[in-house]
Design brief:
51% helix; Glycosyltransferase; globular; mainly alpha
Length: 377
């Protein structure tokens, strides 16, 4: 039994989960309603397929520990003993958070119950509660939270926590606490956030975003300034210097930029630090430019749903319609996005609904930054 609110209350009426808008056609400008409807149909279809395909008796894979959404391999031919195959899935990129976002917008309990099932696995297994001999690793993410559960990426079958932010996530745990009242979600969420207070889990670009989210979630829950200070450290001492080195770019895989777009915007909305908005806009410019380049990480990712929200942020910051138009092309592509695994569902749909803000009736860009092209309103 769940006590729930109307999607309008969760979304645009309170903004408690950010700038989300309910799945109500009347909220959006008429010329965008068709593409938004098709986009929503794809989200719902992908999530339904994920849940429907959970029982897979034909698999020839030794699925260790089938607990809720603990298993979610890339493909049925993967084998548990090969850590390079069974590594990149499960609650990676916070699948329950993506399901929660869809619940908030639609009010369909199927999304919330799915998030609860996946969130229980995230809280109980994917996060290390204690670590004999290394108590500082309490709250760390498991390094391979899928069929092998606690494997180490480079050394195979080893039970351990992971001291980087590659697999680090806790956002959905706080959200599940707010939506269900289950304090276990909050307890593990805070344990996870504390891990990022003492560890600097460097690595690829996604790590920066994961670190910022991990402590901002605790700040929004507790209002303890030390969490916000830690987020500022990650922004000022990690993200911005990285871009300074590469003239506004992160020089990393393009799809990962989408995660950092989210992180910068979350920080900006909480602090009103326009310099973070400026760096976010530079990152958006870099990913658009590099999508048609020929470097190591080029030609792939900028036009996927994981980056979509960033074009809305840049449009909101500047009023430059070039960002809106680019985002509309990506939205159209996302209506056919491949999101039928827990990993890809989270990638495509955890943040892309936030782009819809700029398509609402009466919307005007905030324009906190100067537009370079003169297209701003």
């Amino acid at each position: 039994l769940f006590a729930v609110s109307d999607p309008n209350w969760y979304c645009q009426e309170t903004r408690v989960f950010g700038d989300l808008y309910a799945n109500n056609p009347a909220l959006f400008q008429p010329q965008y309603r068709d593409v938004i409807a098709r986009y929503q149909e794809q989200i719902d279809a992908c999530l339904t397929q994920i849940v429907d395909q959970r029982p897979r008796p034909e698999w020839e894979v030794n699925e260790f520990g089938w607990l809720n959404f603990g298993s979610g391999l890339h493909h049925r031919t993967c084998v548990r003993e090969d850590e390079h195959e069974s590594w990149w899935d499960s609650n990676y990129y916070d699948f329950p958070h993506a399901a929660i976002v869809n619940y908030l917008r639609t009010g369909k309990l199927f999304n919330l119950t799915t998030a609860v099932e996946a969130g229980v696995h995230l809280a109980d297994l994917d996060i290390c509660h204690s670590f004999p001999g290394k108590p500082e690793l309490a709250g760390s993410p498991r390094s391979g939270p899928v069929v092998g559960h606690f494997r180490n990426y480079t050394r195979g079958q080893e039970f351990m926590g992971h001291n980087s932010f590659t697999f680090y996530k806790n956002e959905s745990l706080y959200e599940l606490y707010y939506l269900t009242g289950e304090r276990w979600f909050q307890e593990v969420g805070l344990m996870s956030s504390e891990f990022a207070m003492t560890h600097w889990g460097k690595g690829a670009l996604r790590n920066v975003a994961h670190g910022i989210w991990g402590v901002l979630s605790a700040y929004q829950d507790t209002h303890e300034k030390r969490y916000l200070d830690r987020a500022q450290f990650f922004v000022d001492e990690w993200a911005k210097p990285w871009q300074d080195e590469f003239n506004g770019s992160f020089n990393d895989q393009l799809w990962m930029y989408g995660l950092q777009f989210e992180a910068y915007d979350k920080y900006f909305r909480l602090t009103r630090d326009t310099d973070s908005a400026r760096y976010n806009r530079m990152a958006v410019d870099a990913v658009i430019t590099e999508e048609v380049g020929d470097g190591k990480w080029k030609n792939g990712g900028a036009d996927s749903g994981i980056c979509l929200a960033g074009y809305g942020y840049a449009y909101d910051y500047t009023g430059d319609e070039a960002y809106l138009n680019y985002g509309l092309k990506v939205l159209e592509k996302t209506t056919g996005a491949e999101g039928i695994r827990v990993k890809t569902f989270a990638q495509q749909f955890r943040a892309s609904p936030y782009f819809l803000k700029v398509l609402t009736i009466g919307y005007e860009p905030e324009a906190v930054l100067q537009s370079d092209t003169g297209d701003g309103k």
